[in-house]
Amino acid sequence: QSALTQPASVSGSPGQSITISCTGTSSDIGGYNYVSWYQQHPGKAPKLMIYDVSNRPSGVSNRFSGSKSGNTASLTISGLQAEDEAEYYCSSYTSSSTVVFGGGTKLTVL
Amino acid sequence: QLQLQESGPGLVKTSETLSLTCNVFGGSISGNNYYWGWIRQPPGKGLEWIGNIYYSGSTYYSPSLKSRVTISVDTSKNQFSLKLSSVTAADTAVYYCAKTVGQWPFVYFQHWGQGTLVTVSS
């Protein structure tokens, strides 16, 4: 299985909105609504931010939202804050009953 | 408060077997509706899923690692373990253990250990 495709980096100014894309295939993102997003700060364990494409775990800010169209999932962060600067990873269930991650996207808050 | 803690050697020799244990505190490993998983992250790189295990012993492995990986569970000790054989420098990574949340297919990792760096060197 190949890793999901994410842009290497995105950036935005405080208060703005950004969107990170995650492209897979019909065997993963396109075939199931089991997409999740993780936030990882340097030296820390990842944190689950979105699951089931667009659901937020308790305690995650509603500034984070997820969506999917075809084989591509997206994470949108609105009202950017300095604390949002981190690495973001998408993940999907696959037709082989496995899990695949994206390569990660570095978000820089300017 | 659920806590997961990885333990094991920080240095493994090339061609040998990497062995790590994840101890679970503040909750039972023998519960329904969640799996336990291993994920790794090479230095400066992205996350890679290794595999999941249910308390009954049912496992799912990454196709790329399946021939070298064994994940097992010991309910009496409230822990699960990872063994990765025939390691090379490419297996150098921070290894995380984690617990899933939600329903089938149990692929969302909400609780993570702090991670442990394993270096493979001759």
Could you give the distance between the termini of chain B?
Answer: 40 Å
Instruction: Using the alpha-carbon principal axes, give the shape of chain B.
Output: globular
Query: Span from first to last CA of chain A?
Result: 35 Å
N-to-C SSE string of chain B, H for helix and E for strand: EEEEEEEEEEE
Low-confidence stretches of chain B: none
Overall body shape of chain A: globular
Indicate the radius of gyration of chain B in whole angstroms: 14 Å
Reported for the largest beta sheet of chain B, the result is: 7 strands, mixed
Strand coverage percent of chain A: 35-45%
For the largest interface, the chains and their residue counts are: A-B, 25 and 25 residues
Give the helix/strand class of chain B. mainly beta
Q: How does the major sheet of chain A shape up?
A: 6 strands, mixed
Helix content of chain B: under 10%
Question: Percentage of helical residues of chain A?
Answer: under 10%
Number of helices, where a helix is a run of at least 4 consecutive DSSP H or I residues of chain B? 0
* Overall pLDDT level of chain A: 97
Residues in β-strands, percent of chain B: over 45%
List keywords for this structure.
heterodimer; A: 110 residues; mainly beta; six-stranded mixed β-sheet; three-stranded antiparallel β-sheet; 9 strands; globular; B: 122 residues; seven-stranded mixed β-sheet; four-stranded antiparallel β-sheet
Topology, element by element:
The complex is a heterodimer of chains A (110) and B (122).
Chain A: E1 9-12, E2 18-23, E3 35-40, E4 47-50, E5 64-69, E6 72-77, E7 86-93, E8 99-101, E9 105-109
Parallel strand pairs in A: 1-9
Antiparallel strand pairs in A: 2-6, 3-4, 3-7, 5-6, 7-8, 7-9
Chain B: E1 3-7, E2 11-13, E3 18-25, E4 36-41, E5 48-53, E6 59-61, E7 69-74, E8 79-84, E9 93-101, E10 108-112, E11 116-121
Parallel strand pairs in B: 2-11
Antiparallel strand pairs in B: 1-3, 3-8, 4-5, 4-9, 5-6, 7-8, 9-10, 9-11
